[in-house]
Design goal:
This protein is an alpha+beta fold. The protein has 15 helices and 46 strands. α2 runs antiparallel to α13.
Length: 799
């Protein structure tokens, strides 16, 4: 018989065990997601607005854009996050009862929540980790407000950023209380930790920021080597240690330097595949109209296979290149490869456990990016060669079967498969002939190619397809003749000025707008207008068009917001040679023209061809009038000094104001006399064919110094400048300044058909006080790949 003492002892032990188990259960923290949680797609609004925050009107317009993507292509955005400045801002804490918040969001988040919910999108917010104040009342108010976001508006994401300060040690308990109460209403609430020391509250954070890095192209993230585009640095990002998915990589910036954005998304969504993927931010409405189908395709493909992608493995670098990853299950894998060199790279894929395959005997291998292609049918254990294009990513899928439209024998891109039609572009090089057939053809009712019926195709027949144009005799991507060191040419000044006049100093977003051209999509137009019509965009004077808009309340300014900028001079390009007798510059007042003073003499040089310059003098002041000879047309104006700000520029002939639609200006490029070239290199060649979308890359491998080397070309002796470069030319920026790199510039010069069979001289100028520890090289390439296209439409039963 057990004694009472022993009974008490055993009961005590049992009580302690139960208590400890309960304590362990209670202390287990679910941080909104775990490593096996499928990714959530996200857009966040940073650099759609800056620290001033967004507004209800602008946000509703942006959500309409994502609604259009869903209605048109079936693309689902899971989270729309309002970034800095909406409740909290840089250095201050806000609340939803303040006049500031209610001015921006007069209906709180009610209307935004309603519209977002209509497309199954949830909201997120940026804020400070410690906005609890110094009293119990302020702490309670802060907790209540954050809980309201989850209880009333179903928020799914909080991003707490050190920009708003760190979390005080004594407020860690309050932070924990806040997160626990919020997750009662939003159990899947994701908490992004941006460089914070949360102390004992750290387990409540879902993610940390990969490398502490942000991804604004050519602002926060730049190239580490020469490349044919601005996103080499983004494509070269490090892998996540241990492929840990509870990490945030700051997503893909779609705002500046847009080319090759899709390669960036492939690695973000399918290689790293973090808890937020695909994750984009900025201004995706700045893409070209024809690019939105690719954006939707990548989102849709990721969403379809989201659950499979949570399991990943790093692949052997010797076979697959750096940071290659395979994701999926025992029979279906997605493999991401990359090539960060100027030449094509070939990798060998083993269809076995090396990439994670352990089940199945027969597989269909498909390429999903940079174009789609059914590569072939293979057996377990076979090895296949995959070629990856220079400075691109590649997405390969391996599976016994694919529930995806597929074509064998021809490359293609899926444009849309929402509804009862599948729209596909067949892709082939000019003059290429292929024999193609459908993979999984039995589900289609009819097929047409360029509106011509192809009845046999839906029964499995092989169909010949020919692509128009003469076949290319040379590779569309290749190195051209080597540079040779030479004396500084007599026309060095003209070549330098050609690049200064071809480029601009506008905000990076303005450059993206010009890159993509006009849109015909109402939702895209509205979102673009919402960006550029913001009062602060105009007030910052970061677009030269404000000089030509008949509005003296706007102007073009030299931005000093983010550090020292180059001591440039003001340049004006009329777009063509124009006859005028008077050019009028409105400065608004003496405060806009230092170091000049009113009625001090100033000179401007004018030219028709960048070779011969004539000096004209005038007086500085509020309104400056330059008198010109109407019998001598002029195009280029190069002022010997700069202006802090100009409000308007007009030209007149016989009292009539001239059309200014093609006028352009810059204010950050240096005076030739100050940077005059001291060294030069030249490469000469003739291009017998120029595929569409072609451009030259003049790559300066090595150290040249900040703004220490410039490049341009001559075509039959005529100077033609480079309108683009990586790292980007100096700009009057919307958010932070363009990075100032001292190595590895690459200049980009578009090519046109009228340059075929003409002598082209590529010239690199080593400028005064620059560095010449670099080796120039010139390449021809194209973006996008210069495919010809044919439209394939497949009809199927209505879904």
């Amino acid at each position: 018989m057990v004694s009472i003492k022993n009974q008490v002892f055993f009961l005590t032990v049992i009580f302690v065990i139960i208590f400890n188990l309960q304590a362990q259960t209670q202390s287990k923290i679910f941080a909104g997601a775990d490593e096996s949680t499928p990714s959530r797609s996200e857009y966040f609004s940073w650099i759609n607005n800056t620290n001033e925050g967004s507004t209800e009107k602008q946000t509703l317009i942006n959500v309409d854009f994502f609604k259009w993507l869903k209605d048109k292509y079936g693309m689902q955005l899971d989270i729309y996050a309002l970034d800095a400045g909406n409740i909290d801002g840089k250095g201050f804490c806000g609340n939803m009862e303040s006049s500031r918040f209610l001015k921006q969001f007069p209906n709180s988040f009610d209307l935004i929540f309603k519209k977002a919910s209509s497309i199954n999108t949830r909201l997120g917010i940026w804020g400070g980790p410690d906005c609890f104040g110094n009293t119990l009342a302020s702490q309670t108010a802060r907790i209540d407000m954050m809980v309201k976001l989850c209880r009333q508006y179903k928020f799914e994401l909080f991003k707490f950023d050190k920009v708003n300060g760190d979390l005080r040690t004594e407020k860690q308990d309050a932070f924990i209380e806040m997160m626990e109460k919020c997750r009662k209403y939003s159990p899947d609430l994701i908490l992004l930790n941006h460089r914070l020391n949360l102390g004992k509250a750290l387990p409540y954070a879902t993610t940390s920021l990969l490398g502490g890095a942000e991804t604004y192209i050519d602002v926060h993230m730049t190239n580490s080597q020469t490349a044919p585009h601005h996103r080499q640095g983004a494509l070269a990002r490090e892998g996540v240690p241990g492929l840990k998915r509870l990490t945030e990589d700051h997503g893909v910036c779609i705002s500046s330097c847009l080319d090759y954005w899709e390669d960036d998304i492939v690695l973000q969504a399918f290689n790293r595949n973090l808890i937020l993927a695909p994750e984009i931010y900025g201004n995706p409405w700045l893409l070209k109209d024809e690019e939105f189908s690719k954006l939707a395709r990548l989102f849709n493909l990721h969403a379809k296979y989201n659950k499979l992608l949570v399991n990943g493995m790093l692949l052997p670098e010797n076979n697959y290149g750096e940071n290659a990853v395979s994701r999926g299950d025992s029979s279906t894998r997605f493999i991401t490869l990359r090539n960060l060199s100027w030449q094509n790279s070939t990798y060998t894929i083993s269809l076995d456990q090396e990439i994670g395959l352990t089940k199945g005997n027969n597989f269909i291998v498909r390429q999903f990016h940079p174009y789609e292609e059914v590569i072939g049918h293979f057996e377990m254990g076979q090895k296949i060669k995959i070629e990856v294009l220079p400075f691109r990513s590649c997405l390969i899928g391996v599976s016994p079967q694919w529930d995806e439209p597929g074509i064998e024998g021809c490359r293609y891109e899926i444009i849309n498969q929402k509804g009862d039609e599948v729209q596909i572009n067949l892709l082939g090089m000019p003059g290429e002939k292929v024999n193609m057939n459908l993979s999984g053809y039995s589900s289609y009712l009819s097929a047409t190619i360029d509106c011509h019926k192809e009845s046999g195709m839906i029964r499995g027949a092989v169909v010949p397809v020919s692509f128009p144009g003469p076949s290319l005799k040379e590779s569309w991507h290749r190195a051209l003749d080597d540079f040779i060191s030479c004396e500084v040419p007599d026309d060095a000044e003209s070549l330098y000025e050609a690049t200064c006049f071809a480029a601009d100093n506008n905000a990076l977003e303005v450059r993206s707008l010009y890159r993509s051209g006009k849109s015909d999509i109402p939702q895209v137009i509205a979102a673009r207008n919402a960006l550029f019509d913001q009062p602060l965009f105009k007030e910052r004077g970061i677009w030269d068009k404000y000089l030509f808009d008949n509005d003296l309340s706007s102007g073009f300014e030299v931005s000093h917001r983010w550090g020292t900028l180059p001591k440039g001079v003001f340049r004006l390009d009329l777009g063509k040679n124009v006859s005028l007798d008077k050019l009028v510059l409105e400065a608004g007042g003496e405060y806009n023209i230092p170091p000049l003073k009113t009625d001090e003499a100033i000179s401007v040089e004018i030219s028709t061809d960048l070779k011969t310059w004539k000096v004209v003098e005038f007086l500085a002041g509020k309104t400056m009038v330059i008198k010109l000879d109407p019998l001598v047309p002029v195009r280029y104006f190069r002022f010997n000094q700069n202006f802090e700000s100009l409000l308007e520029i007009k030209g007149y002939l016989k009292g009539k104001s001239l059309n200014r639609s093609n006028w352009r200006a810059s204010n950050l490029f240096a005076n030739w006399r100050v940077v005059k070239a001291e060294k030069a290199w030249e490469s000469s060649f003739v291009l017998n064919e120029i595929p569409k979308g072609s451009y030259l890359c003049i790559a300066l491998d090595g150290k040249h110094g900040v703004e220490g080397a410039y490049a341009a070309i001559r075509v039959d002796g005529k100077p033609i400048g480079a309108p683009d470069r990586t790292v980007s030319f100096p700009g009057n920026t919307w958010e932070l300044s363009v990075s100032k790199n001292e190595s590895n510039y690459t200049y980009y010069i578009p090519l046109s058909k009228d340059m075929e069979n003409k002598k082209i001289d590529a010239v690199v100028l080593g400028l005064k006080e620059g560095v010449t520890d670099f080796k120039p090289k010139v390449w021809i390439t194209a973006y996008p790949i210069p495919f010809e296209k044919k439209s394939l439409v497949l009809k199927r039963n209505k879904l």
